[in-house]
Specification:
Structural class: alpha+beta
Strand order of the largest sheet: 1-2-3-5-4
Shape: globular
Low-confidence stretches: 26-44
Strand content: 25-35%
Distance between the termini: 50 Å
Mean pLDDT: 77
Length: 182
């Protein structure tokens, strides 16, 4: 069935819809609900375990494309990916949207949603990582980071929520000097 709106108006409608969804997801994500660990995981690894863990090969871009609105990935494929990632350690470079203090001397690092991915869908996926600084250098790095800067984080994925947020906890920031990928 042909569309009643011209192409430029359709694009404007999709942009407005995307902005509304981003704002709505940001508002919902500000105070995340209590997370219950997946049943297959017996204990949350500590920071030394996270630092030594071999991250999975899946990139943030691949996850973002699969969970994008209008993505060719099916609900079954997304659910399979979500189940495989729960409890997995990732090492991802993210663009900072915001950093705020969290309980226990940790920091909540929120990434920007990706800009124009390679896939056909509209990706709203962002990362929410609860980062524990391992020393004063990590604290300074987090305190100096600004919106739009990139950080390399490594941590355990707890969940992917509403196709919009990847919750990573615990997480560490990988300093630039040791940021070579394994």
């Amino acid at each position: 069935m042909p569309s009643l709106l011209p192409a430029t108006e359709r694009q404007a409608v999709w942009r407005r819809l995307g902005i509304c969804v981003v704002i709505g997801s940001a508002l919902c994500a500000c105070e995340p609900a209590e997370q219950t660990p997946p049943a297959h995981r017996l204990a949350t690894p500590g920071l030394p375990d996270i630092a030594r863990a071999q991250p999975v090969a899946l990139t943030l871009e691949q996850v973002s494309e699969a969970f994008a609105l209008g993505s060719p990935a099916t609900a079954l494929q997304r659910e399979t990916m979500r189940a495989q990632l729960a409890g997995a350690v990732v090492r991802w470079q993210i663009r900072v949207y915001d950093i705020e203090s969290a309980a226990g001397g940790r920091f909540r690092v929120v990434s920007e949603p990706p800009l124009g991915g390679r896939g056909p869908g509209l990706s709203l996926l962002h990362v929410q990582a609860l980062v524990t600084p391992r020393g004063e250098a990590d604290r300074r790095l987090l305190a100096a980071a600004r919106t739009g800067d990139t950080l390399l984080i490594q941590g355990e994925i707890q969940d992917i929520v509403l196709r919009t947020a990847v919750v990573i906890d615990p997480a560490i920031v990988v300093p630039p000097a040791s940021a070579t990928h394994p």
